[in-house]
Amino acid sequence: MNRIGLWGVLGTLALALIGGVFGFFVLPRTQDSSLSPWAAWCSALGITTQSFAVGPPATNSTASEITLTHELLGPPRPDDIGRGATLALQCSMCHGPTGISVANTPNLAGQYSTVIYKELRDFKSRARSNAIMNAMANTLTDEAMRQIAYYYASLPKLHEAHPLADAPDIVKWGAPSRNVAPCGSCHGDIDHILAGPWLAGEPGAYIRAQLVAFANGERSNDINGQMRAMARGLTAAEIEQTALYYAGNAK
Amino acid sequence: MIDARRLVLWHFWIACGAFVAALLLGEWQMVVRSPLHAWLENPEHYYRSVTEHGSIMGYVFPTLIAMGFGYAICELSLKQALVGLKWAWASLWLVVAGAAVASVTVASGRASVLYTFYPPLIGNAFYYIGIVLVVVGSWIWVALLAINLRAWRKQHPAEKVPLPMFANLAGALLWGWTAVGAAVEILFQILPVALGFKSQIDAGLARVLFSWTLHAIVYFWLMPAYIAYYTIVPRAIGARLYSDTMARLSFAMFLVFAMPIGIHHLFADPMVGSGIKIMHTLFTAMVAVPTFLTIFTIAASVELAGRLRGGQGLLGWLKALPWDNPAMLAIAFSFIMLGLGGAGGLINMSYQLDATIHNTQWITGHFHLIFGGAIVIMYFVIAYDLWPTLTGHEFASLSLLRTQLWLWFVGMLILTLPWHLAGLLGMPRRMAYYDYTTAVNAPTAWTVVVSVIGGALLVLSGVLFLYNLATARASQQSQPAYRFAEAAHEVDRVPLALNGFGVWFALMIALTLVNYGFPIWQLMQRQTSNVPAVYVGGAE
């Protein structure tokens, strides 16, 4: 290594040293003069003493205790769907004998199994409140909830596709300037995501009630507040259009 | 004439074909998100196109140009047949196969994750496997260049390494090391999730690893352009390179400083400490040094040309320059775009100023101006300059070459200057459509329309570029032997440190450890940014 190489190495080292002194000691203590050199060094490295102590923000509601992953349920075992059908007899009074409701409760036929399972778990843990469903879910074991979910997922949907061409703007495009994503990008036809229920054919009254509940925070079992954030950005007219569209009564 | 000319030609043809296809996608994207077009019913189509455009323009096109040009430099500057020709062909087909696999996966809508991957978005595994094949193919090229130089050195123990080969190897070494970040991210983080072995991914760690690649990859794209500045342009305009030593020093500094600076892309990310960000800012600023060395050296070389042609006085030499020479036009255009883009870059790398333009259309405008403008216009020069040697053909009309370069320059400015403005007005990037009827977005509407016009000029220029290459016809006279620019003061020996990369390569790795070691270790330890994967394209 000759002179140029040596100067190159020394110069780079000096630069790193200057950067280190400024970045790790001088600037953190300029911003907060109460920091000890050690605390300044740690905070500049990204280690903050607080981050370990701070828990999730306090809320009045019970948080959902379920973490959704794609492996959560796995494929059904051979007798799961049959057992689920028997267990689901207790649901049929409101959700219909074939999972198609006539009572403004959600249709369950063809719904994704993860969606049904998550909602049952949330009803049981009180993360989602409903006088009837909390009581119904109270007695269900985890296995029973899985089997009910598999059973309803195995039934044919009321509507296999949304007629997206007729959809209102909020469903097709969302409201980009209000940070509202299109409903269809999570709830079917454009795309769907884990735990995003299939909405085609759901009763309008149900959709309307849920959007309002999300918007005013009465319902809070959505993951990371995603639906609350969407629903808060909706206008009353858009809620109405969405409800009518998914109920199949658009226009 | 060179032995490996078929090899080099294949690289250029495939690169240029893919380039024009991606150009069309880019213009389509500009149109559909402009006020001239109704909103896309399916935004996925937009992201699919963006992914394809980015994957070709970011990975396939510049890599093939760097590889083809690299092999040509190897033979032309070392004046020996390429060692490992079969391996070179194998690496080409590996890159092409990878590009094809990735493109088919993207085109089928299974991997609309953008070319920067953005975990926790997870697309179909074949997309990532395709990209890995491209990278592995290019690593063979890196090894071949090192092997060729070693073979030459055995034959010529006392000679200095020719400047073009020295610079060539700088680019190759830079790429070899910088690709490691994204390769680790794909192999150890993304693929296990895409293949279904895991359902969670540490998005914070993935972003840090990708930043390892993301900035230095720009310098890998830039290297062929800089090699053209130093070793093609001075000769093409009838001058000499002002200083061989400055050239070598610049390439050595690019190797060292281009690498450990990627975290300036993560200023808004919370998982990296502010001290680390300051270190990266400092070294990003250091890149200005080799950039200015280059600008002064090349400007001095160009001035030599002007004075040799009789230019007098303070600025008179400018008038005397050979402006009808495509290489002269291109270097002027390239420097203007580099100057504008570099000024924008100073804003991006400043911690506080970045906050005003972070994740806005400004950034997209910026990298199109630098890469699409300053760099790609020099790729055209490389192709035009090598073409007679590679094909034995010459261009029917230089005016079509000039027209093509003018169209590219004007088109790029019309495309990117309003694009920057849109970003300053707060228009976010990575969205498939914008509601121009709202008060917030209305002021940006005209800028996007202007950009559409600029994009159209670029498409014209791209097609004309292919036309120019394809219509070159057999020359009546035999081509003179290809030569690179000579230095104004040729010397027989150069300082040891500027005749090889040992110390600079070691310095680059050491700086990478200093600047990336802790954040990566910390994120791996704590896994605080571990999140469930978000599958796109129906994958689940």
Care to give the gist of this entry?
The complex is a heterodimer of chains A (251) and B (540). Chain A is 51% helix and 0% strand.
Structure commentary:
The complex is a heterodimer of chains A (251) and B (540). Chain A has 251 residues and is mainly α. Chain A is 51% helix and 0% strand. Chain A has helices at residues 3-31, 37-45, 49-53, 80-87, 92-95, 113-125, 131-138, 142-154, 169-172, 184-187, 204-215, 226-232, 236-246. In chain A, helix 4 packs across helix 8, helix 11 (204-215) crosses helix 12 (226-232) and helix 11 (204-215) runs antiparallel to helix 13. Chain A starts with a helix and ends in a 5-residue tail after the last helix. Chain B has a single domain, classed as Cytochrome c oxidase-like, subunit I domain (Cytochrome C Oxidase, Chain A). Chain B is 70% helix and 3% strand. In chain B, the strands form three sheets. Chain B has a two-stranded parallel ribbon. A two-stranded antiparallel ribbon of chain B has the order 2-5. In chain B, helix 2 runs parallel beside helix 4 and helix 5 (163-194) packs antiparallel against helix 6.
Jot down its keywords.
heterodimer; A: 251 residues; mainly alpha; Cytochrome Bc1 Complex, Chain D, domain 2; B: 540 residues; Cytochrome C Oxidase, Chain A; two-stranded parallel sheet; two-stranded antiparallel sheet; globular
Q: Which word captures the global form of chain A?
A: elongated
Instruction: Provide the succession of SSEs of chain A.
Output: HHHHHHHHHHHHH
Looking at this structure, what is the CATH superfamily of the largest domain in chain A? Cytochrome c-like domain
Return residue spans of chain A where pLDDT drops below 50 for at least 5 consecutive residues: none
What oligomeric state do these chains adopt?
heterodimer
**How many helical elements of chain A?**
13
CATH architecture of chain B: Up-down Bundle
CATH topology of chain B: Cytochrome C Oxidase, Chain A
